[in-house]
Every structure is written in structure tokens, then in C-alpha cells.
Amino acid sequence: MRTEPRLTRSVVNRLAVGEDGAVAPSLAVGVECRTDGANMVAQHRSVDRIERVRRRLDQTIGLLKLLGNPNLTRPDLTYNVFTSMGEKSEYLSMGYWKNAETFDQAGQDLVHLVADTAGVGPGHRILDVGFGFGDQDLYIHDHFSPARIDGINITPLQVDTARRKVAERGLEDVIRLAVGSATALPFEANTFDAVLALESPMHFDTRETFFHEALRVLRPGGKLVTADMIPMPGRRKVGLTRMLPMLAIRIFWQSPGANRYPRTVYEDKLRAAGFADAEVRSIREDVYPPFARFIRPRLDDPEIVARVHPLIRAVLKWQWGLEADLPGEDYVLASARKPVR
Ligand SMILES: C[S@@+](CC[C@H](N)C(=O)[O-])C[C@H]1O[C@@H](n2cnc3c(N)ncnc32)[C@H](O)[C@@H]1O
Fold first, then answer.
1. CA–centroid distance, residue 132 to ligand 1 (Å)
2. Which of 132, 213, 231, 305 counts the highest number of beta carbons within 10 A?
3. What does the pLDDT look like over 44-75, one tens digit per residue?
4. What CATH superfamily classification does 75-337 receive?
């Protein structure tokens, strides 16, 4: 039976699931239209458009807040607007590409490298600092079987998403994620067998303060392992034309100047904090050049164009277009042990 289309006022209330997974009511107020199939589609399109515009506006406001913080101490503002470039995963790191062909695989391989270097194993208690959207903790749970993973992350939006993923797997008792800062870890001394920080310590205010905190919460004999971004040894001159984009890149990534020192100084600071067996090795060749080859075309992928703010794409294009593979930047895997007294 064909139902007669009725004239209604197209005020459509619906629940919209945002990019961050948040469920928020959105209201589309349109012109008079009929509730037959075609018009319902039109209504939904208009709601979607309004939702997209709202999201863009939020991101623009977020970016303006970032610009207003030139002292580079608010990475939570960065990660309020920055999403993963992943194919299916939501990894935020640049990944470890030695044996990987996709970004998702490279993200997993970096997690594997870090957890393996820390010697994570069954029965261990792990602290993960700066866990992004939580994919890494599910990976560590599935492949290394620690007894428990605690995670701390400064960006509430990421914590919400990560918690949802953990809940979907029914793992809330094993993987406990919370908002918090690397520089004031909310845990008792001598708690963890390993502390991991995967492409996050360059943001901490400061990395050195985190070293002290990590030492405190580790059990004697426990290991700290980081994957981290630091400058290459030696000074580089920046040409005038590059200064403005470089400044935009620095502000976007909110990484304090106090964390900009090379490998040897990194090792010294680990020792000065009280760690033994400090080792910092460069893995830059398996990170920057392959990631650069991935990210350049990815930034023009229609899927990324649709969901990433044009200003963020511009910053990333500057970053990965200015130079072949960031010759002034190092990428390190660092490890150190809390001494057994
Ligand atoms: C480049 S992302 C890496 C995320 C994740 N490890 C990954 O590889 O997908 C940096 C992460 O560090 C977190 N972060 C930055 N500063 C932090 C702080 N002071 N304490 C805890 N987490 C922090 C950010 O929220 C973000 O999740």
C-alpha cells in the first residue's frame, strides 16, 4: 500500500555520533518538506552537513586555542584535534616499518618492539604513559599477556575512546585507563615491572620529571622503555623561508624546548635520574623515511581530506614536504633499568 506523503516541518532531532565517538544531540531545522523516502534522505544529508560543519568549527576553535599557547606545554590541545592516519587502527605514532607495509602494521610493530624491549610477560604489571586511543594496550594484552596494564593519558577525549574499546572486549579489570600526567603519576612507589612511553615523552613537561616519576613507580629491576623524538646530534641552521612553517609545526606539536637534546644527553639524563643500563639507540631509518613515503600521498586521500581539518593537513604537508625525511630529527628506542639495591 502506498502511503500518502504528509507535509511536516523538518525539525529533526537525532543522536549524532561524532568523530570522537561522543554521542551528542544535533538539531537540523529545515524548510517544509514531505516525509517520503527521498525527503528523509535529504533531511539526513542536511543533518550530516550540519554535523560536519559543527565538527569543523570545533576543530577550528581547538586550533586557535593551540595557537594561543606558544609555550608548547599543552599537547592535550593538539590531540583534541588530531586523529589517526590509520587504515583501520587508530595508532598515532609514526610506526616501525622494518617489516611493515601498512601504517596499521607499522603501528603494531612499534608497540611490539617497545613491549619486547621491556621484557613484558605473563604476570607483569605494566604502566603505559601516553597510550593514545588505546590500540596499543589491547595489542600488548593479546600478545604479551601481562597480569594488568594501567594507562595514563593527558587527553580526556582519547581516554574515553580507549576505555570504550577496552569495555567492548570486556577487559576493564585488566586494562585500566585514566586521565593523568606523566609528570605526576598517580601510583605508589615500586608498583610496576615495566613503564612504557610510546612516542609521547617529547611532549612531557618535562621528560626529565617523567624519568624521576618512572623510577619511583618501577619495582627494583623494572624497566623503562620509550620510543621518542629528539634532535640529531649537532646544530642545524634553519633558512629564513623555513622559519614560519617550522614555527607552526613546533606550535602544533606542543613539545617543550627543554626536551630538545640528542641521544648522549638523553642517556646522561636517565643515569642522572637514577637508572642503570641506560641505552638509547636510533631507529630513525626505520621510522621517518618509510613514514614520509606513507604520509605524503595519504594526506591527499579523499578519506583523510574529508575528516582532517585543512589547517592540520597544511601543517603535516609542510612538515613532510619541507625536507625529505626530517634530517635534523632523530627517533630513538631508549631503555633503562631501576637498580636493585
Ligand atoms: C604521538 S601520541 C602517541 C599515542 C600512542 N602512544 C600511539 O602511538 O598511538 C602522544 C600521546 O601522548 C599523550 N601525552 C602527551 N603529554 C602527556 C602527558 N604529560 N601525560 C600523559 N600523556 C601525555 C597524548 O595525549 C597522546 O596520547
1. 5
2. 132
3. 677 778 888 888 898 899 888 888 887 888 99
4. Vaccinia Virus protein VP39 (3.40.50.150)
